[in-house]
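Input/output pair, single chain:
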Amino acid sequence: MEFLQDTNWILPLLTLFFMELVLGIDNIIFISILVDKLPEHKRKSTMQLGITLAVGCRIVLLFFIGWLVGLTTPILTIQQFNLTGRDLILFVGGAFLVVKTLIELYHKVYQPKLEQPQTIHNGAVVSRIIIQIIFIDLIFSFDSILTAIGLVESITLMVIAVVGSTIVVVMIAKQISEFINENPSVKILALSFLLLIGGYLISESLHIPFDKSLLYFGMGFAFFNEMLNLQFKKQYHGDNG
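Output:
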């Protein structure tokens, strides 16, 4: 009863839930863009595998919170910069995301014909995409759990927020994937978002202060503007049809 009477946990829980939800959607965006390279008959199964891995990574890491906290302990000091295991993981993950996103943007904008999924049939490509999904799942899950640790001290609240947001992401994953792949301009915008997230992870690893809320506000505004553009195009073509 005391737990119900004390409402101080509500705001941290809601804040953490929505931040975990955004991180989960970022993960789904990356998986959707990778899966779109595959032949149509392989997309659904690979997408489901990617989502399952994402869910699994988060749940498993919840059981290693003590180890994750230990990664914030300095392992090397260079002048006034304290390097931690967390910094190394975030830097590698951010660099991978930036490089991968830049390559994807280049292909989408300058070599669209090479991106046709019909040209991709061999198992090696499928395996490579799955490996990339696993790697980025680990990075996003790692950042997700670290965000939880930074916001709340209660493990119970962390579990509720992470599991709750994961359930929501699983429920809307198909709609997100279809929406992105059906709208080329949204796909470019999604890649731009991933580029920003990669840059943010690198800045975090280098201890460069940056307000994550400003990042997501900018992304939200850009998405809102894109929705207006899509609606405008729909109305314009409809009026001229």
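The mean pLDDT is 77. The first strand starts at residue 74 and ends at 78.
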